Each structure stands twice: as C-alpha cells, then as structure tokens.
C-alpha cells in the first residue's frame, strides 16, 4: 500500500470537474441564453473574482471556457451568458432547468477591482456577447459603489433584440447612482429611439474625458477600433483593460494552445492591460 | 560506486519487478521504445535513442482522467486512480532525464498536475550514460553531459562492456540500491572516468556540438517572432506531428471524450501544435497558417519557455526531430538559419 | 477475453439494409411472421453504397460481433448502379480484414429484394449461427467499450 | 546536377516559370529538404542526389494555387503521383513545368546506420553523376564504405520502372534498381494463419504514435479536411487501449487511397516507427489487380479508376472466404 501523501488532494485536481445543476435559464436574445448554475446540493460551486472564467462541459459533447457573468457579490449562484455558435453551445442551449453539466474552475486572473481599479472612474465598453465578462465587474462595482468613482457603460449590439441583459441594464444600471448608460445598435430599427451606429464611432461622439479607466470586451474588430478611438480621445495604454478568448483545453497553462507569446490566456489572462498586450506578439 | 555483471542484469530486472513496475528500452517489431519489462521482453540497451523519448513513462501518450456516467440526468464523476505503485525507469539517457526536468517545470508548477506528480513521486530514474553519441546529438549545447547523467536522475549507470557500473545519486536511488544490494559488488571510479573521457572525445567531434544558441532566450521575442526567415523555413513542413511526438520536452496535450456505451471516458492524449485544428475553436483560429504553427513550436522551445522558466530551454538536444522529420526539417536547421542571418 | 461459460453467448449483429429492397424484405419477413434472431439490429441506409468501410469498422469497434450488408440485387438498384460500387468496396474491405487476421465470415454481403422475405430470414438465421460459432469479436473491438 | 540548375535558371530567367520546386542542400550530406526557389541566385543551394527521396508531387497541390508556372523536378515514381493528382483535378497541368529527373535508387540514412556506421561526417558516391555502386562514408571513427543498393529505401528494391509518365523534358540518367518481387511481402503475410496475421499487425501497429506523417506525406491523401481531423469522430487522436491499436486509422487511410495509390512508398519512408505501411496499400493494389484486372494508378491521367467504376460481372464479396 502506498505510504505517500500525494493522493490527498487528488479529487481536487484542476482537471477533475464538479457537477453543476442548471437552476435557471433566461433567453436573452435570439441566440444568447443565460444559465444559472448551482451545486447539486445547493449553493455556489466555487467563489470567483470578476473577469474569471470556468470550463463548462457536456460529457461526450465537448468542453469550453466561458466567462462567469454573475458578480461574486451574488452569493446564491453563478451565471453564464452563452451565445449559440458551435457544437457545445448548441447543446447547452437545448438543456432544461434541472439538467446537469460539469464545471471546473475558476480559471485565470481577474479585473483588478480591489487594486488598480479602486477609486477610479470606470468606462465599460462592450459589444454583443462581450458584455458577459464585464457584467460581472459592473455588478461588483455597483454592489461596492463607494469604492469607485463614476461609471459609464457604453454597450452596442447588432440590433435591439441582440442586446444582452437589456432589462437589467434599463432597470438596474440606468437607475443606479452616478451611472451613465449609453446604448447603441448597428442599424436603424423600428421601435428603437436610441443611438444608431457602431460602438467605436459612438465612443468618439460621446467624447469621454480621459480621467477614466476603460474596460473593453467585444469582437476583435470592435476592440481594435475602440482602442484607436480611445487613443484619439487621449487614453493611454495603462488606462485600458480587455479580456481575451482563445482555444483552451486544460485551463491551467499546461496544454499549450492558448498562448500568445509566452503568456497563457487561461492562466496569465484572460484580463490584460493594453501595455501588456503591446509587448505580446501579434498572434491573437 | 557499484557494479553488476551484465549477465546478471535479468536477475536485477526480475528482482525489481518483484515489488515494483519496471520500464526500460524494449525492442519490438524492429524498433526500440520504453515499455514494461516482462520475462520474455527483448531488452535493448545498445540502441542509443528510443524512437519515442522516455517521457511516456511519466506523461503517457494517452491516459484517462475520469469517467462521467449519467443516470436520470444526474451526472457522476469518477476520477481515475493515480499511480500508486512504485516503479523504476531504467536506461534513460541524459537528454531524456533533462526532458523530464523540463516537463517538471510545467506539470509541477502551480496548479500541480496530480496525475503527473503521482508518477514522479513513485518513479525512480536510473539513467544510463551514452557510450557512443550519434551525429544528430547535441545535448552538450544545452549543458547536458551524456557521459555523466545527473540532474533529476536517481541513479547513474555506465555500460562498461562486461559490467554495468551503478552509482546512486539521490535518496530514492540509495533506497533502490539497498534493495538490490545482493546483486552488486563494490567498484572504483577509475574505469568510469576513462569511459567518460572517451565519450567526451566523441562529443567534441560530433557535427552539432558547436551549435550556438546565441540570440535565443526569453528576451528574443520580437526580433525572432517577426523575422522573415520563418516564411522560408516552414515551406517543406507537412504539418504532421512526428517531431512533437518523439520530442522529450513537448508537453502539449488534448483532452477528449470517448463514449464507451457505459459512460463517457475523458482522456488526455498528446497533441501537436503542428496540427491545423490545434487552436481552432467555434469563433476562429489565431494560428491559421502553417508558418504560424511552425514558428510557434520553435518559439516555444527557444523563447517562450525560457521566458517563463529562468532561461532554461525546452530543448535537450536529443536530435530525435533531426532523425525523424519526414521533410528533414529540425530545430538545428532553425537555429542555424537564424545565426546565419545574424552574420 | 474469456467468455463466461455459464452465460450463453448472444452475438451482436449489425445489419445495414438498403431502404428500397432489403429493408422492405425485412418488413416482409416480419409481416409474414418469419422468424429471425432478435440479435440482429437493422440500420436502414438509403442504398448499400451509402455504407462506407468506416461504418463497418465502427460497428465492430463498438462491440458488434458480425456485420452484414444487404442491398438490392445487382441490376435492381433504386439508383441504378449504387450496389455495384458497394460490391467492389466491400470485396476489398473484406479482403483487407482477412489480410490483417480478422476471422473470415464476420462480414457478409447479401442481395435481398423486397419480395424475398424468406431469403432475409434464412440469411439472418444462417449468419447469426455462423457468428455464434465464431464467438465473440475480440480482434476489432475497442477495449474501452467492453463489459 | 549542374545541368538541372542551369536549366532551372534558364527557365526562371526567360520567364517560363515563376519558381522552382526542388530540393535544397541540408546541413548534413544526407538531409536535403524539399524547397521552393524564387530566384536564380537561390538555386545555388539546389541539390539533387541519392538522398532526395521526397515525392514533390504533393507540394504541387499548393503550387497550383500560386501565380505563374512552377518548375518541378519529378522522379519516375513521382510522375505517377502527379498523374493521379491531375486525374483528380488537384493539380493544374498548366501551372506545372515538369522536368523528369533520372533516378538510380534513393537512399535511406537509417539503412546506412543500421549497418553500424556511426558519427557520419560526409557521404560520397550519392551524386547522380556517380555510378551509384558504392558509398564512401567519412565518419568520426574513420572512413567506411557501403554498397549503394544496401543503403536504398525498401521501395526502390521493388521499383515500378524508370519511365517518366508525364513530363515536359527529361534530364539525367536512370538505373534499374528492382531486385525484389513487388508483392512478395504481401504474399508472405497472406500465407500466414489468421492468428499469425493478427499478431504481426498488432505488433506493427502498436508502435504507431498517430503522428499522421503517413497521411500528410501521401500525395493521394489530398482532402482539404481529413475525416480523422473531425471533432465528431472519436478516433481523431490516439487513445488508450485497443485490441488492435490504430487499426481504424490505418485501414481507412489505406482504403481511402485504394485504387488511387501509386505505391510511391512515401508512407513507409516517413514512418518514425518503421511500420511497413505500404503493405496495406500494396494489398489493395494486389486485390484490385486480381479482381478487376491489372491497374496501375497514375500510369495515365485519364481513364477509369477501379473504385469509381464497375462491371456487371464483378466478383461477389464472398470470394474472400471462398478462395480460402
């Protein structure tokens, strides 16, 4: 019999998942659903920080990394907003409340809400499903309102129907103290009286002052032009954060596929400040 | 220092396998690879390099992680058992030993990979010096002395013709030596020193022994990454995974599911950054061209890995890629192409 | 792999049947109350030439003990020529299986028309009996699928 | 070799071709690599000797997508592959300028090493201008020699012949190297009992590491996406324990090229584990010859292929068990 102690924690190996049960599903947009996940015996599966991710898996189908969209201040459950775009996500979209999946995590770093971002004025810029990781931060900030300065939220989507979490945005965020919400959609649409236009151009129109720290997430092309826009407004690289997504398998920086240069997105990221990104090779 | 007559080696192997596992180079269907010892196994200690490196013994090409069974929507996760039995890896060469050290820095860094860690805890490495290093060898470039394998090896041995000389290095090695002590007789170092000298003489004459790594390392990122040389170098690459699978330091893996009919078995298996689907996901792929994938492999070995690991290279100069690439591409050609450019 | 002596060996048979002839033949066998063993699992395919060698290997891998392919008689294919292609493919595949040491007789091709309910039933009975004699498929199975 | 370089330079300079596909000198005498040459001065690195075993036809798939003509050097056996690719519309004849090069048998460095020759520094006698009888090998242990034919790739001993099946011009002499029966290996296995056959292939295939080199080097394996790369298919990568390791991959790989395989032998040449993969392909070729009449893929670019044609009188699959 083995006398070593190397097995003591093996059930906690990062590659071994926990079982999670889906306790709520909200259809956000035609192709985005938000899943509420709990431990089967109730309560949360784990604690996380805003910006962290978790691996969701449907056994036999596939496994992928998703950002946790609920705030850590939510003590009851975790939420994942998932857009239907591949094999796994299609499968997840067919699940019902009460179905089980496996979850492992949380993985990666987080937005520095307790350090660098503290006391700062925050500007959140999101496009489409890119709101998912930022929502975690926004709710965290709103729940710890006194620790942060002003909050501006610029959120755009293809159409009014594709705006994720619209209800929460309009009822909770828009009414919160010292929070400005700016919504935009790509094309004119009946029944929409808000702004029309792409996020980067709206950003320039809004002409934000540079006393803010920007947190950006969205499709790569949007990030690229938002970055240009922010630079034109006078923002420096140190004032801009974003979060990445690449193919991942292990989630702990060992399987070797999500690297950009010597940085592993799953371990050293997914949150990067733009001055860090500038040092990375252009392969993302 | 101890020694054992070569004809008693099978007694040694038998004794080891009485209480623990034993992996050593075994010839099967014309090729030598590390495999489990059995009474009728064709042990081959003369072939310089096994086709696959010895990393298989600690990081197998494929291993199960857990099994998921679903009943009435309820999922049960049953993790695979970790290595519990002690085992010995016999006959690892200096380069392979260093290869395991390279893997250690990946798998034993936080968060520790328990599957790998359990194997490392239970494994004892008996290294064997290379009597006649080959033309594709360049381990000396990475500071490895193939005449005196040390590093994380627990025991070093030398093939001296009629005798195998045996020198325990670590506590684990002492323990194994004590267990086998009946089979050994005492020996002095002089003969081994002579052999070491003659090996060093061969190493000095080998064509790759003066390869220079100047310019490589963790700081070389931009200059190397953006070099136009890659466009030239990658062209003959067939995008197979031979180099990665024979490499002692390549550690990339894939995690896959297999539906056995009684549950979904999740296993991990070696993967290769040379494969086109390596980084592919539903929304896109950040390394779409073979040039990018080719560059990734060598940048990882010579730049990214050293950047994360105190300047240690993720290549041990075993020369397996040199021997095995179907298109005769290899890390030496990459290093040479860059030093030529620098001139 | 040893077979439990106390437990009777029930071979798993996969039958690929073309939609237009053989599947109808199986139907006829059923409606004529002609018996064939319940161990035969029928997979309906549009045409015998839909069956790609991978289907056959895959069936074996997942635990089948015998695989039989049934299609329209040569000349009667619903798509004119499909079964001629299937015939060549299967000939080569079976020969390859023989070459790598898989017992002869685990695979078979039989042409069964929609009117041949009797032939369908006798073919299946005969095939099952043959596989029964050959025993469990251990050479092509995937060990993970066992037990 | 100088003749090849001179002609390539001419064709590049007069604008007939935009690039040259050939072999580049390696850092060792025995490891030249396939290479594209875009300008006349880079051709100084061009080499063609006994170690240029790689079949360049496969690279012509990519070259056919490039602007302008590519000058490609094809050995006699490579021209079969080119023809077959042409038949399948995977290469463009108008994009290729083919110089058929002579062949005196290609060498395998592993065959030289297998004779105990170590520490190789230089090898002489492998140039096309040489007689190609003896290799003189300079090693760190002194000079050794080795018969050329003893160092040849296995495939060259069963060479189909030194006639180029497609070309624009021919340069260089060839030498007949066939000294073994092509189907002897297949027949030897056919004569075994099922148990022996199974053991033989299990031992061989257990070595497979699923590196996919055999597939990727194969000029007939030209699918844009291979079925074995599909996520939906659980044999996509090597997994543990099979009673017959990697059988699926190797049978299907060979089946997918059955009737199209020109028996160029690249699969066996590149296998890092030395698995005689050509046995699968050659078995299909032998069967096709026996069942449907002699056929040699790539002999011509047109005409029917055995698995995409049929006759009413074809043998029934039951022949496999009937022939005993």
Task: Write up this protein.
The complex is a heterotetramer of chains A (284), B (343), C (147) and D (324). Chain A has 284 residues and is of the alpha/beta class. Chain A has helices at residues 87-93, 131-143, 166-173, 199-206, 220-233, 274-279; strands at residues 18-29, 32-38, 53-58, 62-67, 78-83, 100-107, 121-127, 151-157, 179-185, 195-196, 212-217, 240-243, 259-260, 263-264, 271-273. With 343 residues, chain B is α+β, with helices and mostly antiparallel strands. Chain B is built from eleven helices and 14 strands. In chain B, a hairpin with a 2-residue loop joins β4 (62-71) and β5 (74-79). Chain C has a single domain (13-136), classed as Rossmann fold (3-Layer(aba) Sandwich), CATH 3.40.50. Helix content of chain C is 37%, strand content 16%. Chain C has a four-stranded parallel beta sheet, with helices on both faces. In chain C, α1 packs across α4 (117-134). The chains are: A alpha/beta (284), B alpha+beta (343), C alpha/beta (147), D alpha/beta (324). Chains in contact: A-B, B-C, B-D, C-D. Chains C and D meet through α2, α3 and β4 of C and α5, α6, α8, α10 and α11 of D.
Provide the fold topology.
The complex is a heterotetramer of chains A (284), B (343), C (147) and D (324).
Chain A: E1 18-29, E2 32-38, E3 53-58, E4 62-67, E5 78-83, H1 87-93, E6 100-107, E7 121-127, H2 131-143, E8 151-157, H3 166-173, E9 179-185, E10 195-196, H4 199-206, E11 212-217, H5 220-233, E12 240-243, E13 259-260, E14 263-264, E15 271-273, H6 274-279
Parallel strand pairs in A: 7-8, 7-11, 8-9, 9-10, 11-12
Antiparallel strand pairs in A: 1-2, 1-6, 2-5, 3-4, 3-6, 12-15, 13-14
Helix pairs in contact in A: 4-5
Chain B: E1 2-5, H1 9-19, E2 21-28, E3 31-36, E4 62-71, E5 74-79, E6 87-92, H2 94-107, H3 114-122, E7 123-128, E8 155-160, E9 163-168, H4 171-179, E10 185-186, H5 190-205, H6 221-225, H7 229-233, H8 242-246, E11 253-259, E12 264-270, E13 280-281, E14 284-285, H9 290-308, H10 320-324, H11 331-342
Parallel strand pairs in B: 2-6, 6-7, 7-8
Antiparallel strand pairs in B: 1-9, 1-10, 2-3, 4-5, 4-12, 8-9, 11-12, 13-14
Chain D: H1 2-13, E1 19-24, E2 33-37, H2 59-63, E3 70-74, H3 76-87, E4 96-101, H4 109-114, E5 120-124, E6 134-139, E7 142-147, E8 169-171, H5 184-190, H6 194-205, H7 213-217, H8 247-256, H9 266-270, H10 278-292, H11 319-322
Parallel strand pairs in D: 1-3, 3-4, 4-8
Antiparallel strand pairs in D: 1-2, 5-6, 6-7
């Amino acid at each position: 019999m083995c006398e070593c102690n190397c097995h003591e924690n093996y059930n906690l190996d990062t590659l071994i998942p926990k079982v999670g049960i889906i306790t709520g599903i909200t259809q956000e947009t035609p192709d985005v659903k938000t899943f509420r996940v709990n431990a089967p015996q109730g309560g949360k599966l784990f604690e996380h920080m805003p910006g962290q991710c978790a691996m969701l898996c449907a056994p036999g189908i596939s496994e992928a990394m998703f950002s946790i969209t609920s705030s850590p201040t939510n003590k009851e459950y975790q939420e994942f907003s998932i857009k239907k775009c591949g094999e796994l996500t299609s499968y997840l979209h067919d699940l019902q409340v009460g179905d089980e999946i496996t979850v492992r995590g949380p993985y990666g770093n987080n937005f520095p809400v307790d350090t660098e971002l503290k006391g700062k004025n925050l500007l959140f810029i999101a496009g489409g499903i890119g709101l998912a990781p930022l929502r975690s931060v926004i709710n965290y900030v709103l729940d710890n309102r006194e620790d942060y300065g002003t909050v501006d939220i610029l959120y755009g989507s293809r159409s009014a129907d594709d705006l994720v979490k619209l209800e929460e945005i309009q009822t909770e965020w828009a009414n919160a103290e010292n929070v400005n919400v700016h919504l935009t959609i790509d094309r004119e649409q009946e029944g929409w009286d808000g702004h029309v236009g792409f996020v980067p151009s709206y950003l320039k129109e809004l002409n934000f002052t540079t006393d803010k720290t920007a947190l950006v997430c969205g499709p790569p092309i949007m990030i690229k032009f938002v970055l240009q826009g922010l630079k034109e407004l006078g923002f420096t690289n140190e004032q801009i954060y974003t979060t990445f997504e690449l193919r991942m398998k292990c989630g702990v920086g060992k399987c070797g596929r999500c690297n950009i240069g010597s940085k592993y997105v799953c371990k050293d990221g997914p949150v990067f400040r733009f001055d860090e990104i500038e040092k990375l090779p252009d392969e993302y | 220092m101890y020694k054992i007559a070569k004809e008693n080696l099978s007694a040694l192997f038998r004794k080891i396998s009485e209480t623990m596992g034993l992996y050593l180079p075994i010839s099967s269907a014309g090729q030598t690879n590390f495999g489990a010892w059995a009474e009728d196994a064709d042990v081959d200690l003369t072939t310089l390099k096994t086709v696959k490196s010895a990393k298989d013994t600690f990081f197998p090409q494929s291993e199960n992680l857990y099994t998921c069974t679903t009943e009435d929507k309820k999922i049960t996760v049953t993790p695979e058992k970790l290595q519990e039995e002690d085992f010995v890896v016999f006959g690892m060469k200096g380069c392979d030993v260093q290869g395991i050290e390279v893997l250690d820095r990946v798998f034993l860094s936080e968060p520790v990979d328990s599957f790998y860690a359990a194997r490392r805890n239970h494994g004892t490495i008996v290294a064997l010096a290379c009597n006649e290093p080959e033309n594709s060898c360049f381990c000396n470039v990475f500071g490895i002395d193939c005449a005196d394998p040390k590093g994380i090896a627990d025991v070093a041995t030398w093939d001296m013709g009629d005798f195998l000389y045996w020198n325990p290095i670590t506590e684990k090695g002492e323990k194994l030596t004590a267990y086998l002590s009946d089979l050994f007789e005492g020996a002095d170092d002089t003969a081994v020193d002579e052999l070491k000298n003659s090996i060093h003489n061969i190493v000095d004459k080998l064509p790759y022994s003066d390869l220079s790594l100047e310019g490589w390392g963790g700081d070389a990122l931009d200059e190397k990454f953006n070099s136009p040389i890659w466009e030239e170098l990658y062209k003959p690459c067939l995008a197979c995974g031979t180099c990665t699978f024979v490499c002692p330091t390549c550690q990339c893996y894939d995690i896959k599911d297999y539906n056995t009919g009684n549950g979904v078995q999740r296993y991990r298996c070696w993967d290769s950054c040379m494969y086109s689907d390596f980084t592919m996901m539903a929304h896109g792929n950040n390394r779409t061209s073979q040039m990018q994938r080719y560059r990734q492999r060598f940048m990882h070995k010579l730049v990214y890995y050293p950047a994360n690991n105190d300047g240690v290279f993720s290549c041990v100069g075993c020369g397996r890629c040199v021997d095995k690439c179907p298109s005769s591409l290899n890390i030496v050609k990459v290093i040479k192409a860059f030093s030529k450019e620098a001139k | 792999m040893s077979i439990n002596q106390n437990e009777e060996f029930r071979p798993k048979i996969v039958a690929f049947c073309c939609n237009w002839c053989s599947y109808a033949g199986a139907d006829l066998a059923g409606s004529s109350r002609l018996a064939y063993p319940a161990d035969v699992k029928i997979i309906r395919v549009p045409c015998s030439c839909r069956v790609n060698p991978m289907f056959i290997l895959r069936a074996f891998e997942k635990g089948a003990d015998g695989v039989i392919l049934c299609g329209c008689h040569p000349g009667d294919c619903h798509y004119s020529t499909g079964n001629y292609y299937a015939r060549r493919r299967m000939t080569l595949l079976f020969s390859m299986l023989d070459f790598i040491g898989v017992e002869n007789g685990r695979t078979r091709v039989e042409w069964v028309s929609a009117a041949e309910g009797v032939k369908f039933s006798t073919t299946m009975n005969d095939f099952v009996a043959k596989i029964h004699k050959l025993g469990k498929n251990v050479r092509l199975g995937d060990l993970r699928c066992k037990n | 070799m100088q003749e090849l370089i001179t002609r390539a330079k001419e064709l590049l300079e007069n604008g007939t071709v935009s690039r040259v596909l050939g072999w580049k000198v390696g850092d060792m005498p025995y490891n030249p690599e396939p290479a594209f040459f875009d300008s006349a001065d880079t051709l100084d690195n061009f080499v063609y000797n006994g170690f240029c075993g790689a079949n360049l036809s496969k690279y012509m798939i990519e070259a056919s997508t490039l602007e302008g003509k590519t000058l490609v050097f094809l050995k006699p056996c490579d021209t079969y592959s080119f023809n077959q690719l042409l038949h399948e519309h995977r290469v463009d004849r108008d994009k290729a300028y083919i110089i058929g090069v002579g062949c005196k048998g290609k060498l395998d460095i592993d065959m030289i090493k297998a004779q105990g020759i170590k520490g190789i520094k230089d090898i002489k006698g492998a140039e096309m201008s040489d007689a190609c009888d003896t290799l003189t090998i300079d090693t760190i242990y002194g000079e050794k020699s080795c018969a050329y034919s003893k160092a040849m790739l296995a495939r060259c001993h069963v060479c189909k012949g030194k006639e180029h099946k497609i070309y624009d011009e021919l340069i260089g002499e060839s030498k007949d190297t066939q000294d073994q029966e092509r189907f002897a290996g297949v027949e030897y296995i056919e004569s075994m009992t099922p148990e022996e056959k199974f053991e033989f292939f299990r031992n061989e295939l257990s070595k497979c590491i699923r590196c996919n080199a055999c597939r990727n080097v194969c000029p007939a394996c030209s699918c844009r996406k291979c079925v074995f790369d599909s996520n939906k298919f659980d044999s996509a990568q090597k997994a543990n324990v099979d009673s017959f390791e990697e059988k699926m991959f190797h049978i299907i790989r060979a089946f997918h090229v059955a009737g199209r395989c020109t028996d160029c032998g690249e699969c066996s040449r590149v296998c890092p584990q030395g698995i005689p993969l050509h046995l699968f392909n050659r078995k299909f070729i032998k069967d096709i010859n026996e069942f449907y009449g002699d056929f040699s893929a790539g002999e011509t670019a047109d005409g029917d292929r055995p698995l995409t044609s049929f006759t009413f009188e074809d043998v029934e699959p039951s022949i496999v068990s009937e022939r005993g």
